[in-house]
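Case study B.
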Amino acid sequence: MDAIVSVTADWGIGRDGSLLVRNRADMKRFKELTMGGNVIMGRKTFESLPGGPLTGRKNIVLTRSRDFAAEGVEVARSIDEALEMADAHGGRTWLIGGASLYGQFIDICDEAYVTYHDCVLEADAYFPNLDEDERWTCAEVSETDFTASGIPFHFALYRHL
Ligand SMILES: NC(=O)c1ccc[n+]([C@@H]2O[C@H](COP(=O)([O-])OP(=O)(O)OC[C@H]3O[C@@H](n4cnc5c(N)ncnc54)[C@H](OP(=O)(O)O)[C@@H]3O)[C@@H](O)[C@H]2O)c1
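Model:
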């Protein structure tokens, strides 16, 4: 399983249930990378998706609730159950958030595809700081580009050592 995330300079990822930065290039890349694969997400991230389940991908939602159900998703009550579902489908598996899932399961990811925005915005949800974690190394960094609102960003690939 690989993680994919969009962060600001202090590894902020969200506020009030929403993303921090609007970045079309990042959304396009997210779609391209995850298309055809399995996406594992927390119940809160699922509920924040504007268009419901992500099309063209197997959506697996993690919840502890026995009552949660939604059309177009498989519901798992543990990460092991989610990974079994993903294995049964085959293909690549992506951990797509949110903060709670990243925090618990980053250690079982092989790679992290990080879109790094060079700005700090008020956040209430964070990704683990991989630059301060010696078990992770930054293997590739793209050239800097800019969002429509002028925020510099680049894509970074981190590998779990
Ligand atoms: N920047 C990015 O790339 C990115 C990506 C995704 C999300 N986000 C942001 O992250 C924030 C949401 O993160 P969050 O931490 O509040 O929520 P979350 O991780 O999306 O979902 C948390 C929920 O997942 C379920 N859960 C968590 N751990 C579980 C486990 N071990 N077993 C079973 N179920 C488990 C629980 O659901 P129940 O309460 O139903 O039991 C829990 O309340 C939002 O601001 C969102 O915009 C950012």
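Residues 2-160 form a domain with the Dihydrofolate Reductase, subunit A fold (CATH 3.40.430.10). The remaining cases will be described in the next quarterly update.
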